[in-house]
Every structure is written in structure tokens, then in C-alpha cells.
Amino acid sequence: MQLTSYTDYSLRALLYIGKNPDRLVTVSEITDHYGVSRNHMVKVVHNLGAHGFIQTVRGKSGGMRLAKKPEEIMIADVVILTEPHMNIQECFSRDTNTCPLIDNCSLMGVLYKARRAFMQVLEEQSLADIL
Q1: Which domains does the chain possess?
Q2: By three-state DSSP, how is residue 31 classified?
Q3: Which UniProt keywords apply (predicted)?
Q4: Which residue has the higher pLDDT, 41 or 108?
Q5: How many whole angstroms from its chain centre is CA 126?
Q6: 10, 15, 41, 97 — which has fewest CB within 10 A?
């Protein structure tokens, strides 16, 4: 399983902002620090702001800061927000599934358990834990 770059950028943005709690952080700082696309980061920051993870301040001396304490930002919540789905196998999506084994396959249950275990680990981790 691999998380999308959108999720990666979201987590990186939160980490960078969280490491600088005493000031406003700019998109340019984050993109320069991580060497990532500014256009993508602008979309990420907009989404994080719209969902209450960060506060944004517009204007020449604007920037962003965490909208919550790092202990209140759970990594699982960010992943759920930013991943389009957590289908680690085609059979997880009944709408687009073309697997001929769907009615007789016990692998799907194992993969569901694996995904659940993955998410349980993320549910136990806050931004504070990884800062």
C-alpha cells in the first residue's frame, strides 16, 4: 500500500507548521524546505484550512498556524481526509470490481484486517507524537 503524494504533502505541511508554533509559516517556506511543488502545496494548505487543521492569515505578512493543539490532530484523521479511498485491492470496490474470484475468495477478509490494523496504528498517533 502506498499513500498518495497529496497525503504525504498534507502530513509534511502539518509537521513543518507544528515545528514552528511561535510564528506564521508560509507556503513558500514549506515548499522550499521539502522541495515539493508549490501548486500542490497550495491545494493541500487550502484543504487543511477548510477542514480545521490549520488557520490561515491572508496578506503580506500572512501565513498559517495549527488550528488545534498537536495532540488533537490525529494522523488517521489526516489520512482519511486526504486519501481518495483505502482500497488496497480491486475487490474492495464493489462498483469497479472485475475480479472473477470475488464470490469465492478468502483473501479479501485478510486484506480488510490488514487495512484495519494499518488504520489502528494511525489512530493511535497524534501530530504531537511525531513532532
Answers
A1: 5-130 (1.10.10.10)
A2: helix
A3: DNA-binding
A4: 41
A5: 12
A6: 97
